[in-house]
Design a protein that fits this description.
The chain is of the alpha+beta class. 20% of the residues lie in helices and 30% in strands. A hairpin with a 5-residue loop joins strand 6 and strand 7.
């Protein structure tokens, strides 16, 4: 029995913010979320998280972006997704089904912070559970 999936399969969202966009042979969006730090299954096994409003790359009438993370790793790539409109800095992307591995396999490579944890009530109210900062990174070093 795998504890992550047994407890949290098809649960949890990871909300990422677009930091910047550019073009280098294709459209690229750099997020504040890292495949290497926050969703390593994207790199370790062919896992493609679903994004609310995002579709398969190359979808007709949609704009395709390669989503990358903020680390210095060349492989910090989440994948290619299409969207109804161009992405701009500040846009929020909501990855689904992220609780099971995002919580247990995340890391703080090069000081990249862990994602904050929040709960959303049935009434839509958001309450913070835990935020992470430099002190958490430092404590993990020894």
């Amino acid at each position: 029995l795998e504890p992550g999936e047994a407890v949290a399969l098809n649960a949890g969202f990871l909300v990422a913010t677009v930091l910047d966009t550019m073009e280098n042979g294709m459209d690229i969006a750099i997020l504040d979320t890292s495949a290497a730090c926050h969703m390593p299954d994207v790199i370790e096994m062919p896992y493609r998280p679903r994004i609310v409003g995002g579709g398969a790359p190359g979808a007709p009438g949609r704009r395709t972006y390669r989503l990358g993370g903020p680390t210095c790793l060349a492989g910090d790539v989440i994948g290619d997704y299409s969207f109804d409109r161009p992405l701009v800095p500040g846009d929020r992307l909501v990855f689904t089904d992220m609780a099971h591995y995002t919580m247990v396999k995340n890391n703080t490579f090069n000081g990249v912070c862990l994602p904050s944890i929040a709960l959303v009530g049935e009434d839509g109210a958001v309450s913070g559970v835990r935020s992470f900062g430099y002190e958490d990174f430092r404590q993990r070093l020894s």
